[in-house]
Amino acid sequence: MKQYNVGIIGATGMVGQRFATLLADHPWFKVKVLAASPRSAGQTYEQAAGSRWKMTVPMPEAMKDMILMDASADIEKIASMVDFCFCAVDMKKDEIKALEEAYAKAECPIVSNNSAHRFTPDVPMVVPEINPDHIEIIKAQRERLGTKRGFIAVKSNCSIQSYVPALHPLRKFGLTKVLACTYQAISGAGKNFETWPEMVDNLIPYIGGEEEKSEQEPLKVWGEIKGNEIVKAQSPQITTQCLRVPVSDGHTAAVFVSFENKPSKEEILQLWKDFKGVPQELELPSAPKQFIHYFEENDRPQAKLDRGLEGGMAVSTGRLREDTQYDYKFVCLSHNTLRGAAGGGVLLAELLAAKGYFD
Ligand SMILES: NC(=O)c1ccc[n+]([C@@H]2O[C@H](COP(=O)([O-])OP(=O)(O)OC[C@H]3O[C@@H](n4cnc5c(N)ncnc54)[C@H](OP(=O)(O)O)[C@@H]3O)[C@@H](O)[C@H]2O)c1
Predict the structure, then answer these.
(1) Which atom of ligand 1 is nearest to the CA of 91?
(2) I want to staple 271 with a disulfide (CB 3.0 to 4.6 A). Which of 44, 61, 169, 340 is the partner?
(3) Is a pLDDT exceeding 90 seen at residue 190?
(4) Residue of the nearest CA to atom 18 in ligand 1?
C-alpha cells in the first residue's frame, strides 16, 4: 500500500492526542504536520501538550520535537506538506466550517471529527462498516467546491457508535421505533477525573446537543445518495436520553427496539455474529476482525472490562431479551475516543485511502 503524509489539526487536544498515538506506528500514514491554535504554534509538541497529555501511553518520541504550526495562518503551507489532514478542534461551528472548507479548497482533504459539517448535504458522514458507499458523494462535493483533490469527510458522533452498528443489520426486519438511553464517559467532554473531579460519585442528566445528534445522525448514516446530496432515511423513529456518568472511557447505551416483522432472538444473534463490512473485507489496518461481539453473561458488557476489545474498535452487545412494550431490549458499548472518535477517523481515512481518494 502507498504511504501517505498526514497532518493533525488540533493535535494538542484530547482527540488530537489520540490521533497522535494511533498514527505513531501506522502502516500507511506518516505524521508530517502537527497544528493547533496560535497559542501553541511555534512551540514543540512536548512544550505545548506535554503538561496536558491525557493518554495512558506516552507522547510518541518522534513527535515530541515537532514544531506546531498555526492551523489557520499556515493552511497553504500545511496543504503543500501533506496528502490529507485529520481535524479535531474546539472552535465555534462557523469557524470550523470555514477552516475545513479552506483546507479542502487548498486541495488538502480533511477527515474530520468535528460536528460542524455533519449535516452539509454533500459531506459524507461515515461509519465505514455501515455506509462506505456514501464516500461517492465526494465527487459532487468537489464540483461544488471547485477542487480536484480537496474534500471534507466526517465521522459521526461518539454517542451513536454503540447502538447504530447493532441496529444496522436488523434494518431488514423494518425497524420502526428505537429508544436509546446513553451513559457517556467523561473523556467525551475532553476530561478525566483530575480535570473534572466533580464527576467522581456523580451523574449529570444533560449533555448539550447530544440528544439531537443521537436522534438525527443515524438517519443521515442510513440515508441515500440522491443527485448531489445525501437524503436522510425516514425511519426508524428515534428518541434518546443522554447522561454523563462517572466512567473514564466507554459509552454504554440501553436500547429498546420494535420492528414491522419481529425477528427471533436467534436471528438477531446470528446477524450480529455474521456482520462484516467493507473494512473487514478489505482488511483495513484498524478494522476489528469481529465488529459486533455478543456477551452471554448478564453483567456484560462492562465499560472497564470490555471497551478495549479489538483495540477499542469493536462494539459489544449483551442482555438481548424480549420487552413488554417494545419487541426487544439490549445493551451495547463502544470506546468513545477510539471507535467513537480518533480510531473511527483513522478507519475512515483508511477506507478513503484504499478507494483512492487521497491520490
Ligand atoms: N466522536 C467524535 O468524533 C468526537 C469525540 C470527541 C470530540 N470530538 C470533537 O473533536 C473536537 C476536539 O475535541 P477535544 O475534546 O479534542 O477538544 P480539546 O481537548 O479542547 O482540544 C481542542 C483543540 O482545538 C485547538 N484549537 C482551539 N482553538 C483553535 C483555533 N482558534 N485554531 C486552531 N486550533 C484551535 C486546540 O489548540 P490549543 O491547544 O492550541 O488551544 C486543541 O488542539 C471538538 O469539535 C469535539 O466536538 C469529536
Answers:
(1) 28
(2) 169
(3) no
(4) 13
Mean pLDDT (the chain) is 97
State the cell numbers at 157: 458522533
Distance 219 CA to ligand 1 centre (A): 25
- The rounded Å distance from CA 158 to ligand 1 centre is 15
Point out the residues that are catalytic: 158, 251
Ligand 1 pocket test, candidate residues 39, 90, 195, 210, most atoms within 8 A of CB = 90
Distance between Cα 345 and ligand 1 center (Å): 14
Domain boundaries, the chain: 4-157+342-354, 159-335
**14 Cβ closer than 6 Å to some ligand 1 atom:** yes
Kindly state the average pLDDT of the residues 241-252. Answer: 98
pTM over 0.70: yes
Rounded to whole angstroms, the Cα distance separating 90 from 47 reads 20
Q: Does domain 4-157+342-354 have CATH number 3.40.50.720?
A: yes
114 pocket-lining for ligand 1 (C-beta < 6 Å): yes
**Whose Cα sits closest to atom 35 in ligand 1?**
37
In short, whether 65's Cβ falls inside 6 Å of ligand 1 is no
Does 343 contact ligand 1 (Cβ within 6 A)?
no
Look up the CATH number of domain 159-335: 3.30.360.10
Give the model confidence (pLDDT) of 283-304 as tens digits: 999 999 999 999 999 999 999 9
Q: Can you read off the three cell numbers belonging to residue 208? A: 448539550
**Ligand 1 neighbour 71 (Cβ under 6 A):** yes
Is 287 close to ligand 1, i.e. is its CB under 6 Å away? Answer: no
